[in-house]
Structures are given as structure tokens and as C-alpha cells.
Automatic annotation (TrEMBL):
Similarity comment text for this entry: Belongs to the ERGIC family.
Name of this chain's protein: Endoplasmic reticulum vesicle transporter-domain-containing protein
Species the sequence originates in: Lentinula detonsa
One Gene Ontology CC term in the entry: Golgi membrane
Domain of life: Eukaryota
Keywords: Membrane, Transmembrane, Transmembrane helix
Transmembrane residue ranges: 30-49
């Protein structure tokens, strides 16, 4: 009975077959069969490659980490500027200012050939100043000469006097009249640096708003809401001290947990000697997250940069400072780059469609 039931189903067969007696096999048919097989194989290979290929989807979100700090690491060499004439300052549109940063910046004096001068690092210089203060009487309390006194109420070395002047908004222009500076031979040391260069290495922490980082001459202070840069009088006329040609070995923006490999980075070769020039770099920084195919999240930053060179001596009145300025603008947008791959179901569907199309065509 079952056999009779299945026998009745032959009436709905849409793919009727001819008998072998009436089949005719030709070379043309064989050729078309081989062509169809080649096309099906090619489609299968292409679909498999497409299935294994990784695509990157881009999405834009609002950066919710705007309240966090962003670390900027730099490594810049000035072959014609002494370390005393390089001050690292940070200012942003929120009004925050970091002046003459030294706790996270290391300056190394370089000789005329670009090699580091032994014993010139900041920690070693600090120990040299401490040797002078150790020779002073235990009850010694140096004058701050009208500047803002530190917590101790005493300025026992030249650097403390200079800091007191800066905090007061005064220019530190006459070190020869300061007892502490004369005792430490401060003026002589500065003259010895006339033909030296400087390597600035370290990092600064900035708010995620627009601002600028500048490596400028002398020491900066604020007076009447203006930023002033003071120079030692007997170094002001030294042409070499105004040559801010430089080499940027590294400039990166990253958080502490950022992925190190894909961090934002730029390198720049040293420019030709240009006295009395101001170098400006304009950076557009954008937070970027990478989601890998295995679900790993990598945080980083990317930026674009343009630069401008300006001769401050042309048409100026001495108000425009020399130096290197990094003007940065951190975008409130977060870019998320997600690696994706087609599903296996999509691969099977595409493969069946390509195969059916090839068979129907031939």
C-alpha cells in the first residue's frame, strides 16, 4: 500500500527525467558542464574569502570621559637652545594653567654635537643646589626680595627667588643683584650654556578641552592677564638662543589604559635654522576605541596635525613670543571602530544563490 502511495506521487514530479536511451552527450555539453563547475568553484572560493574577511564598522558616540585627564608624552630636541631658555607651560580654555612644569618633564643639556652632557639631568642639578644650601647656617633664611614667599617663608636658593618673582608676576631680569644667585654662580652657569642644546622628554596631563602646550624661552609668568616670558638680559642678544629649530621624536596623546601600539603619534624631522621664529602646530585629537573580532576593547587616540611658521621679527613689536606651540583641540566625539565578519548563515545563503545562478545560466 505504501508502495502504491509513493507511486502516485510521481504525478507531481516537476523534474522529470528522460531515459538513457534518448540522452545525447555532446562535446558542447561537456564544455558547458566544465564551465559551470569552474564558475561554481570560483563563486565558492570568493564567497569563502568574503566570509573570512574582516570588515570595520565605524560609529560615532558622545565621549562621556570628558572629565578625565589626557596624558601627552613628548620627546623634542632643540640643538640651538639651552635648557634654561626652554619652559614647558600648559593652558586651556577652562582657565587652568600649568607653568614651568618640572615634576614630569626631564631636560637634558646637549653639547654642540648633540650628545648629552654628563651630570646635566634635573635630579643631578638639584643635588648640586642642595650642596650649596648644606653649607649655610642652620638658622639661615634667605630673602625673597618682595616676591611671594613659600610656605617656609625663606628663599634659600636662586630658583626659589625666581619662583617667588614669577608667583608675584614680576620678571626675573636682574639675577646679579640676588645674593643666592651670586653664591651659586648662576650667571656664570648660564653663560656656559650659550652654545648648548636641550632635550625635553616627559609627559604633561591636560584637560579634555581646547588648549595649548608651549615650549617657550625663559620662564613664564602672568601679569595683567597676559602671559609674559622673561629672559636674562645678557642672553637676550645671543642669536643662537633664538633659533628654535627642533626635532620632534615623539608626540603622543594617550590615557594610562590606552593600547600602546595604536596610540596617536607623530614624528617630525628638524627644520632648517630660522632665527626669531615661532613654530605652531594645530592638533585635532579624537578618542578612538577599537573592538577586535574576538571582543577585545582597545582604547586609543588619533589626531591630525598642521603646522605654521612665523617670523616674529617681521612687523612685530616684540610682543609675540618665540618657541614651539602645540595648539590642541580635543573632540567631544568618540569614534568606535568595530571589526565584524559575515555570519555562517549569510555564507551558505550567498553560496546557494551563486550556485543556482550558475546552473540556470548554463
Amino acid at each position: 500500500m505504501a508502495k502504491g502511495l509513493f507511486a502516485n506521487l510521481k504525478g507531481v514530479d516537476a523534474f522529470g527525467k528522460t531515459t538513457d536511451d534518448v540522452k545525447i552527450k555532446t562535446r558542447t555539453g561537456a564544455f558547458l558542464t566544465l564551465v559551470s563547475a569552474a564558475i561554481i568553484l570560483s563563486f565558492t572560493l570568493m564567497e569563502f574569502i568574503d566570509y573570512r574577511r574582516i570588515y570595520t564598522d565605524t560609529s560615532l558616540l558622545v565621549d562621556r570621559s570628558r572629565g578625565e585627564k589626557l596624558s601627552m608624552r613628548m620627546n623634542v630636541t632643540f640643538p640651538k637652545v639651552s635648557c634654561y631658555l626652554v619652559s614647558v607651560d600648559v593652558m586651556d580654555i577652562s582657565g587652568k594653567a600649568q607653568r614651568d612644569i618640572s615634576h614630569s618633564i626631564r631636560k637634558m643639556r646637549l653639547d654642540s654635537s648633540g650628545k648629552e652632557i654628563r651630570g646635566s639631568r634635573s635630579t643631578q642639578l638639584k643635588n648640586e643646589v642642595e650642596r650649596y644650601t648644606d653649607d649655610l647656617p642652620s638658622d639661615y633664611c634667605g630673602s625673597c626680595y618682595g616676591g611671594v614667599e613659600p610656605v617656609s617663608g625663606c628663599c634659600n636658593n636662586c630658583e626659589e627667588v625666581r619662583t617667588a618673582y614669577v608667583n608675584k608676576g614680576w620678571s626675573f631680569t636682574n639675577p646679579d643683584s640676588i645674593e643666592q644667585c651670586k653664591r651659586e654662580g648662576w650667571a656664570i652657569k648660564l653663560k656656559e650654556q650659550a652654545n648648548e642644546g636641550c632635550s625635553v622628554v616627559g609627559r604633561v596631563h591636560v584637560n579634555k578641552v581646547a588648549g595649548n602646550i608651549h615650549l617657550s624661552p625663559g620662564r613664564s609668568f602672568q601679569s595683567s592677564a597676559r602671559d609674559i616670558y622673561e629672559l636674562v638680559p645678557y642672553l637676550q642678544d645671543d642669536g643662537n638662543k633664538h633659533d628654535y629649530s627642533h626635532t620632534i621624536h615623539e608626540l603622543t596623546f594617550k590615557n594610562d589604559d590606552d593600547y600602546n601600539y595604536r596610540k596617536a603619534k607623530v614624528t617630525k624631522e628638524m627644520r632648517q635654522r630660522l632665527d626669531n621664529y615661532m613654530y605652531q602646530y594645530f592638533l585635532k585629537v579624537m578618542s578612538t576605541h577599537f573592538r577586535t573580532i574576538d571582543g577585545q576593547l582597545l582604547k586609543s587616540h588619533q589626531y591630525s596635525a598642521t603646522h605654521l611658521e612665523r617670523d616674529v621679527a617681521e612687523g612685530g613689536h616684540g610682543d609675540t613670543p618665540q618657541g614651539v606651540f602645540f595648539n590642541f583641540e580635543i573632540s567631544p566625539i568618540l569614534v568606535v571602530l568595530t571589526d565584524t565578519r559575515q555570519s555562517f548563515a549569510h555564507f551558505i545563503t550567498s553560496l546557494l544563490f551563486a550556485t543556482t545562478h550558475a546552473l540556470k545560466k548554463h
